[in-house]
Amino acid sequence: MFSLALNSLRFRALPVSLIIVSLTLGLSLILIVDRIQEGTRRGFEQTLSGVDLIIGPRSGDLQMLLYTVFHLGNATNNVTSQSIDAIAKNPNIEWIVPIALGDSHRGYRVVATDPHYFEYIRGAGGAPLRFAIGTPLDALNDVVLGATVARRLGYTLGDSLFLSHGSSPMGAVHDDYAFKVTGILEPTGTPTDQAVFIRLEGFSLLHLGWQSGSRLFRTDRILAANPSLGDLRPRDVTAAFVGVKSRLQVFQLQRAINEYPEEALSGVLPGVALGQLWSLLGTADRAFNLLAWIILGVAVISMMTMTVTSLESRHREMSILRAVGASPTYLGGLLLAEAALIGLAASICATVIVGIASLWARPWLETTLGISPELSWMAGNDWLTLGGVIFAGILSALIPAFLLYRSTLQYGLTERRA
Question: pTM of the prediction?
Answer without folding.
Answer: 0.70
